[in-house]
C-alpha cells in the first residue's frame, strides 16, 4: 500500500506522517516512511541542491532534478518495500511535481505527465491526503513555531519557500484542481484542524480503504 501526503510547505505533513506510522505499526504493519526529495544518498544530495542552493535554477532543470530523485527512490527503495509487503508512506510524490512545477512554475502539464510516468515507473498512490492551507496561514505557522518575526524574505526560508506568496497561491490552486479531478484518490483535509483531529480522520480513512481492499 502506498500512501502519500501532499500540500504546500507548512501544512503539517511531517506531523501526520509520523502519527500515521505509529498508528499502523501499533496495528502490526511493517511501515516505511520517506520524504521527497530524499531517502538515499543520491536523493539527499539532490535535495540539498534543490532546497538549500542559492543559485537560480531554471524550471525545467528543477523538474528534472526532482524527477531524477524520484526515479532513484522508487527503483531503489519504494518498489522493493512494496514487494515485501510493507506500507510505504511518502511525504510528497508525483502530485507535488504537478502542483509546484506545473501550476506553480507554469510548465506544460502534458510534459509533467510524461516525466512523472518515467520517474515513478507508472507507480501511483493508493490514497493521498492533501492538507490544505492558505500560503499566508502556512507562513504564519512556520514562523510562529520558530518564534521568529514574520518575514517573507527571511533567511530561514529555503529556495522553494522563497518563491513568494503568489507562487504558493498557484501551487495551492494546482492541488485543488488535482483533487477535483481525482476525489476518490485524493482526500482533502483542512490543515487548520488540530493535529489530533486530522490524525483521527486520516487513520480512519486508511483503515476504511484497507478494509474495502480486503473485502473486494
Describe this structure in words.
This protein is α/β, with parallel strands linked by helices and 216 residues long. Helix content is 57%, strand content 12%. It contains 8 helices and 5 strands, in the order βαβααβααβααβα. The chain has helices at 13-26, 41-52, 59-83, 94-104, 109-120, 135-145, 165-181, 195-215; strands at 2-6, 31-35, 87-91, 127-132, 186-190. It has a 5-stranded parallel sheet with strand order 2-3-1-4-5, sandwiched between helices. It starts with a strand and ends with a helix. The mean pLDDT is 91.
Multimerization state: single chain
Binned strand content = 5-15%
Order of helices and strands: EHEHHEHHEHHEH
Question: Helical content, roughly?
Answer: 55-70%
Q: Describe the biggest sheet?
A: 5 strands, parallel
Count of helices? Answer: 8
> Can you tell me the residue ranges where pLDDT is under 50 for at least 5 consecutive residues?
none
CATH class: Alpha Beta
- Main β-sheet, spatial strand arrangement: 2-3-1-4-5
Q: What is the overall silhouette?
A: globular
Q: Average pLDDT across residues?
A: 91
Q: How many distinct domains?
A: 1
Beginning-to-end CA distance, first to last residue: 15 Å
* The CATH superfamily title: P-loop containing nucleotide triphosphate hydrolases
Task: Give me the CATH fold name.
Answer: Rossmann fold
CATH-derived architecture? 3-Layer(aba) Sandwich
Backbone CA Rg:
17 Å
- Structure classification: alpha/beta
- How many β-strand stretches? 5
Please sum up the structure shown:
The protein is α/β, with parallel strands linked by helices. Helices cover 57% and strands 12% of the residues. The radius of gyration is 17 Å and the shape is globular.
Amino acid at each position: 500500500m502506498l500512501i502519500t501526503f501532499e500540500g504546500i510547505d507548512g501544512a503539517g505533513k511531517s506531523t501526520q506522517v509520523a502519527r500515521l506510522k505509529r498508528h499502523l505499526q501499533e496495528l502490526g504493519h511493517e511501515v516505511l516512511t520517506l520524504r521527497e526529495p530524499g531517502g538515499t544518498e543520491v536523493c539527499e544530495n539532490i535535495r540539498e541542491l534543490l532546497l538549500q542552493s542559492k543559485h537560480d535554477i531554471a524550471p525545467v532543470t528543477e523538474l528534472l532534478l526532482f524527477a531524477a530523485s524520484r526515479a532513484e527512490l522508487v527503483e531503489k527503495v519504494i518498489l522493493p518495500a512494496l514487494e515485501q509487503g510493507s506500507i510505504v508512506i511518502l511525504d510528497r510524490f508525483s502530485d507535488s511535481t504537478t502542483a509546484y512545477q506545473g501550476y506553480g512554475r507554469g510548465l506544460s502539464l502534458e510534459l509533467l505527465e510524461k516525466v512523472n510516468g518515467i520517474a515513478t515507473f507508472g507507480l501511483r498512490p493508493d490514497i493521498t491526503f492533501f492538507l490544505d492551507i492558505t500560503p499566508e496561514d502556512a507562513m504564519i505557522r512556520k514562523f510562529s513555531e520558530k518564534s521568529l518575526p514574520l518575514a517573507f524574505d527571511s533567511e530561514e526560508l529555503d529556495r522553494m519557500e522563497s518563491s513568494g506568496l503568489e507562487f504558493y497561491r498557484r501551487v495551492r490552486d494546482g492541488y485543488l484542481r488535482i483533487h477535483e479531478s481525482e476525489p476518490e484518490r485524493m482526500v482533502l483535509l483542512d490543515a487548520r484542524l488540530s493535529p489530533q483531529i486530522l490524525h483521527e480522520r486520516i487513520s480512519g480513512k486508511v483503515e476504511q480503504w484497507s478494509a474495502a481492499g480486503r473485502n473486494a
